[in-house]
Amino acid sequence: MNRTIFLFFTLIFTSQLAFAWGEKGHHSVGYTAAVISDDYLTPEEKAAIGLAFRARPHQMGHLANMPDISWKDSRRTNVVKFNRPNHYFDAEILVGPMLDKKGQPTLAYSEEYLSKVRNLERDIDKLRQMYDGKPNTLPGAATSENKKTINVYFVSGTNPWRVQDLYNSMVEAFKCAAGKPKLDKKDRKPFISPLKIADNSPVYPYYKCTKNTSRLEDIYAALVFGGVMGHFVGDITQPHHASADYDGWATGQGGLHSYFEDFMVHFLPENLIGEVTTKAKTKREKNWKKFAPPKGTAFWAVQLMLNLTADSLSKMQKLRDIDRKFALLEEGEKITFGGDEGKVKAKRRPYNDPKVLKGYHDFVIEQLSLSSTMLAGIWMEAWREGGRPDLSEWDLITVPYPMDVPFLWPGYSKPYWK
To answer: Kind and range of the H or E element at 146?
Structure first.
């Protein structure tokens, strides 16, 4: 059997869940990022960008959910196949497991270990040359047929490179708009989405700056790229999307992934967005200073996401401790670190239990607000790098509301998934 096909089918049934934060959580990330976006700007920049982001919180929240909805329709087999690995990055598969003094895998990651994660190769082509085909050193990989050999795209995942991909696309669309004159409203062409649809085979590029695309279409594309990007930025702040032990099996806490990030989040109070926004505003400057690399860094967005990956790993033990204190009733089956899913999940209190909601509340708000601050900052950097096009003329009626988005194939400049 062709190895890629084999990987596809085994991953469909055994690879990690990829629904970080659920609809409510992902929407809050996109929504909050839009609300705080102009906090990153000077007064002059605010005048130029207008309400292009600030007036679109619902739209950006909607777009942030796209990769978990229409892009996961099981009838779209190729889309599902190539979309799935973009939601996570299991750095331990490349770096090796963190070991305790007894030589056993542990979730208590040292600063030295986290530094190795942050310093992984940022060029995806070079990274694949370094690791593809090498043995997977995680203890559980020996019993998992689809994980024995490393394939960066399909096994370890490519979340940081997906964000870089969308950042590059956003920059190009803004540059395209910046190079075109403003048009009077009466002279505007009828709108046609510049994004291409291709479910069965990649189309490169899915967006291309040409003299034939209108300035409106270019700006529309940039906003769509930024909105969809919100999903993947949100994913990596969920610790289980940064670890090979993606569902708690190594510690007997199987089933934790979706329990807290999706079902439990849906039962948090309906003022969730307000709380995330308040926290994001207070932590925006600190978060950006901590995680954003200097501009000019090669593969800038990749480095930012690697920094977030390391941060999520550093919080894994805290997440497991919260589960044990507030939700866990009985441990389930234990699986060797890095192995497949077990059959007997842990038993927990109902996810709408007030004790559970109170116990997880602060952690969820902290992580969602972190995603929001990073996303808003990335958008503003893309706008600056794209030539700071004047967006003040575009209102909610002028720019169509994208109800659905064609699958944006990974590898905007060139495919990196083969």
So the answer is: none
Region at 53 (left for phi over 0; alpha for psi -120 to 50; beta for the rest):
alpha
- Domain with 173, as residue range(s), is 18-91+157-385
Distance CA 113, CA 95 (A): 8
Q: What is the sign of the dihedral through the CA atoms of 97, 103, 109 and 111? A: negative
Per-residue pLDDT tens for 206-264? 888 888 888 888 999 999 999 999 999 999 999 999 999 999 999 999 999 989 988 89
Long-range contacts formed by 122-131: CB under 8 A, 24+ apart: 122/160, 122/298, 122/299, 122/302, 122/303, 122/306, 123/298, 123/299, 124/152, 124/158, 124/161, 124/302, 124/416, 125/416, 127/94, 127/152, 128/152, 128/153, 128/416, 131/94, 131/156
Q: How far apart are CA 260 and CA 206, in angstroms?
A: 35
Return the CATH number at 223.
1.10.575
Block residue for tokens 């234990």? 334
pLDDT digits (tens, 9 = 90+) for 390-403: 998 776 677 778 88
Residue 342 lies in a domain: yes
* Contact of 51 with 13, CB cutoff 8 Å: no
CB atoms within 10 A of CB 269: 9
Phi, psi (rounded to 5 degrees) for 328: -65, 130
Alpha-carbon distance 321 to 363, whole Å? 11
pTM of the model: 0.93
Q: How far apart are CA 316 and CA 409, in angstroms?
A: 31
